[in-house]
Amino acid sequence: MTESTTTRSIERAFDILECFLDEQQEFTLKEIVALTKLSPSTVHRLIKALEKRKYLICNKNKKYKLGSMVAKLGFVTVGKMGLDFKMIARKHMIQLHKKYNESISLYVIDDDKRLCIDRIESTHDLRRVIDIGSTFPLEVGAAGRILLAYLDQASVDDMYIHVDISSQEYQKIREQGYIVSQGEREVGVSALAVPIFNFTKKVIATLSLSGPSIRLDKKILNEIAIDLKSISEKISKELGYTS
């Protein structure tokens, strides 16, 4: 087999694997042929090779899905990304800070609270300083409630938090993909928060922008939300998320 033939086979194998990037998780051989536009014999040969290496498996309905080797590679990658997660988010936080000069924070869930794992403070004289490592209630404030919105009800109940995430309020948060709060946790402080997803489509953190309500009224925050959502999508994609 020549080098060019080998390269072509590898590229075609990737074409097959990339069929699984969309929402559909199982395909028949015929469906893979249609998606890749390769000959049935080529698809069959490559699928057998991918099956042998456990990149694909065939279920009882004769449909193919991703195998255990893909999951193993994913866990290795995510493990490494976990170390760099703050670094990935930080470059985008700096971008937001330069543009708006308001405080930018990164929060994750810690038991039944939200934990600030990174923050860039505004340089305005009037600002609310929060230390990295500070914790706050999940059910109060934009950053906490965006994290709650994407949990399942059983997880929320286990935290002894009395919040119904199926309510219209939380449905709206998920539909919008962001939340604005004013004076919710502290009088005179406004905040905007968006979710960050990982490759499993799970919300693992929230990115927030906050500052005095005198500078950030609801109209301004809703305008900034478009920018913040775009940034959160970029971070999520760098973590392997596909919508």
Q: What is the fold's blueprint, element by element?
A:
Blueprint: H1 3-17, H2 29-36, H3 40-52, E1 56-58, E2 64-66, H4 68-100, E3 103-110, E4 113-120, E5 135-137, H5 142-149, H6 153-158, H7 168-176, E6 179-182, E7 189-197, E8 203-212, H8 218-238
Structural account:
47% of the residues lie in helices and 20% in strands. By secondary structure, the chain is α+β, with helices and mostly antiparallel strands. The protein has two domains: 3-66, Arc Repressor Mutant, subunit A; 77-238, Beta-Lactamase (2-Layer Sandwich), CATH 3.30.450. A hairpin with a 5-residue loop joins strand 1 (56-58) and strand 2. Helix 5 crosses helix 7 (168-176). The model has no long low-confidence stretch (mean pLDDT 87).
| Strand line-up in the sheet with most strands | 5-4-3-8-7-6
The low-confidence runs, each spanning 5 or more residues with pLDDT under 50, are none
Give the count of helical stretches: 8
Strand content: 15-25%
Looking at CATH, the homologous superfamily of the largest domain is: GAF domain
State the total count of DSSP E strands.
8
* Radius of gyration, in angstroms, nearest whole number: 22 Å
- Overall structural domain count: 2
In short:
It is built from eight helices and eight strands, in the order αααββαβββαααβββα.
